[in-house]
Each structure stands twice: as structure tokens, then as C-alpha cells.
Design goal:
The chain is an alpha+beta fold. The chain has one domain: Metal Transport, Frataxin, Chain A. It is 35% helix and 28% strand. Strands 1-2-3 form a 3-stranded antiparallel beta sheet, with helices on one face. It is globular, with a radius of gyration of 10 Å.
């Protein structure tokens, strides 16, 4: 999955950007009340990384 597609899913589920970092952005999920990092790469996100991000966001 591309980063742009993941951003749409996160925003749809209520997650929002807290701050920009050099290589990663820090997001917050109101579902889990957790912060998580999201790589700012334009390429595909690796399946394991994607799984962890979705779990931390409370989507899967």
C-alpha cells in the first residue's frame, strides 16, 4: 500500500497528525489513545510495517 492510500484510511478513521519529523510523522489515534509514527516515504509501505501501523491506529 502506498503512503497516500494509508493516509486516507487513517484520516477516515479519525487519526490526525501531531507533528512532522525528519523521516517520520507522528500521528495520534483517538480509538486507541496512542501515538504512532508513519514513514514519509513515497514508495510502498512494507506489509509488516503496515500491519503495525493499522494495529496501533486501532483499525485492525
Amino acid at each position: 500500500m502506498k503512503t497516500s492510500e494509508l493516509l486516507k484510511i487513517l484520516k477516515k478513521n479519525g487519526s490526525y497528525l501531531i507533528r512532522h519529523g525528519k523521516r517520520h510523522d507522528i500521528w495520534f489515534s483517538p480509538i486507541t489513545n496512542k501515538q504512532f509514527s508513519l514513514p514519509r516515504h513515497k514508495d510502498e509501505i512494507k506489509p509488516g510495517t503496515l500491519k503495525n501501523i493499522l494495529e496501533e491506529a486501532g483499525i485492525k
